[in-house]
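Let us work through a complete example step by step.
Step 1: write down the sequence.
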Amino acid sequence: MQEFYNKALMGVLLLLAVSVVASYLCLNRTYLHLPLVPAGKSDLLWRSEATSDANRGGLSSVKINDDQFSLNFDFTISKKAEYPFASTELMFIDNTGKSILVDLSQYDSLSFSAKCLPANTLTLFIHTFEEKVSVAGDFLTYRAPSAFFSCNENWSSVELDLTRLETPQWWLNMFKIQLSNQAYSLNKVPKVTFGSTFQSPSEIASSVQLNEITFHGRDWRYLYLL
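Step 2: predict the structure and record it as tokens.
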């Protein structure tokens, strides 16, 4: 009889151990985390590109200081252009360096730590391929839903809701799309951009540091399996 109880106890302990392991694996796969920066921790390949209104006759400038361990860039906004801007883009690429579209539809938020000098209000753009509008390689034709965030000389945590981004009015007007049409999909994303806004300080050097840029999401299939 004692042997029976010992076997029963071992069976219960084994089932408990299997349940704990299964629960850990399912919960770990339910809550998704996709690092973007530092680059060494990311499953995505990308290259950084500095862009400004200088390409359109303006005098704004931007310089990327680091894009591997953090995203660190300096910029100066000049009011010489009609629509001055400066930004740093993270362009998704394949193993050969060719630009690609990535599927980020499983992710609903983006988090990072931010520090700016002087205090600033910046924009996050998630560029998306718009059916019947976008032309491959012509990024002006891609929808660019965005969100604003603020930062100052002290480190602060930022989390942006990727399900509630807003498409700029000028883009909708350019392609004759109704202003109420704010729908977008993150299943074909060519790049992510961090840029200035009309509230960014002008005619002075601005510095931006962004650390631990990470996408977050949920895959409920594993929770249902659990």
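Step 3: interpret the result. The first strand starts at residue 31 and ends at 37.
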